[in-house]
Specification:
The chain has 385 residues and is an alpha/beta fold. The protein has 13 helices and 13 strands. It folds into two domains: 142 residues, Nucleotidyltransferase, domain 5; 173 residues, Nucleotidyltransferase, domain 5.
């Protein structure tokens, strides 16, 4: 019977999954990925849980919970002989900088980082427990989004706060989307036929969230996201860079609580806050652009179209200013690599790159979304040694 690996990639309100068939490597214990046999996702749409897989869509009426979501996925995959499970976890702090085996010690130790990623880490941890309860003997490993950025220089990752706040509370730049940036870097290495540690790149992960990373000769030199995933670019619902004084001003003038401000900056800002539209495809349509393969039944008013155009300008400007800052520090650059569902849009890439001055010989690459396969390959490498 064929052996399989399951990948689980959960966000704050979504869960992607994929099942990979495994093959023995020359008869040794070491395994390798043979092919992907199933993939899908589950997310909230209104008060329904929507499960999508293999071009099928199923609406579930049961109340949202990770336990329910895991049950739906398990019913799909229960006939596969799952030997390994690989997770994505957003935050590993400074401690976890590589793929790690999930055991009792890890499950106790990782809890202290929940406070650094309260919207993501607790969900991943809950899901790990559900999987372990379902399959007590299955081997599990976890891959961290922050790990790719662990080589950031001290002058880059430290904020200009009293140093004791870093030492006591771990307040520093961590960087996120690392598994996607790593996959984009590996793709560039193959396309350019260069070793990863010899590459000079700017990688751009653009989805509902977005981040830009500057990579030089085996080391991440800088990245747009910092202490939290809210830092950096304008995103679908996140504000991106914001002066700290705005938080104080909202608290004093608008009488907002810290929890309400957090919800505002993470869930009600970005494109949604600027134009009332969180999906960049809708922003493009309202701005007068065509989006291949996407139709929207919404009818936009004149005010909505103007708001969408402004939101698009702000979105593109944020990306350009980060890329430009990294370009200014790059004497030589092999490529600017785009990845993610938004980056796949030709119009968006053209807007971003228009008139940007880049070093001679710099290529523009579009990497396929590689987060899931990256998790699978790192997991099997860790668990089948």
């Amino acid at each position: 019977m064929k052996k399989h690996l399951l990948v689980l990639n959960n966000g704050s309100s979504s869960l992607k999954f994929a099942v990979f068939e495994l093959a023995n490597l020359s008869g040794l214990r070491q395994k390798k990925i043979s092919k992907q046999v199933l993939s899908g996702s589950i997310c909230l749409q209104g008060d329904k849980s929507v499960l999508i897989y293999n071009n099928k869509k199923i609406n579930h009426q049961a109340p949202y919970s990770l336990k329910n979501w895991w049950h739906y996925i398990y019913e799909l995959i229960k006939d596969f002989d799952i030997q390994y499970v690989g997770f994505r976890m957003v935050h590993g702090g400074e401690e976890f900088t590589d793929t790690t085996i999930v055991n009792i010690s890890f499950l106790k130790n990782i809890k202290k980082y929940n406070k650094l990623a309260p919207l993501h880490n607790p969900n991943a941890l809950e899901l790990m427990h559900l999987v372990k309860d379902t399959w007590p003997r299955v081997q599990i490993a976890v891959n961290f989004d922050t790990a790719w950025h662990h080589s950031l220089p001290e002058a880059v990752y430290l904020y200009s706060l009293p140093i004791d706040y870093y030492k006591k509370y771990q307040i520093r730049k961590y960087g996120f989307h690392g598994l996607s940036h790593e996959a984009a870097t590996n793709y560039a290495a193959k396309v350019l036929n260069k070793k990863v540690d010899k590459l000079k790149l700017i990688t751009c992960h653009l989805g509902s969230g977005g981040s830009i990373t500057w990579y030089l000769d085996g080391q991440v030199k800088d990245t747009s996201m910092g202490f939290s995933p809210n830092e950096g670019l304008t995103m679908s619902t996140r504000s991106g860079d914001l002066p700290p004084s705005v938080v104080f001003y909202l608290a004093s003038e608008a009488k907002m609580s810290l929890s309400n401000i957090s919800e505002l900056l993470n869930k009600k800002s970005g494109l949604l806050g600027l134009a009332g539209l969180a999906d960049l495809r809708d922003i493009l349509l309202a701005s007068g652009y065509k989006v291949a393969g996407y139709k929207n039944i919404l009818k936009f008013t004149k005010d909505q179209r103007q708001a969408a155009k402004l939101a698009l300008d702000i979105y593109i400007y944020d990306i350009r200013r980060y890329i430009a800052s990294y370009l200014a520090m790059s004497k030589k650059l092999d490529a600017i690599v785009f990845t993610g569902p938004v980056a796949a849009n030709n119009t968006i890439r053209s807007m971003i790159m228009k008139n940007l001055q880049k070093p001679k010989g710099t290529k523009i690459l579009l990497a396929p979304e590689g987060e899931i396969i990256n998790i699978a390959e790192k997991t099997i490498k860790c668990l089948s040694k």
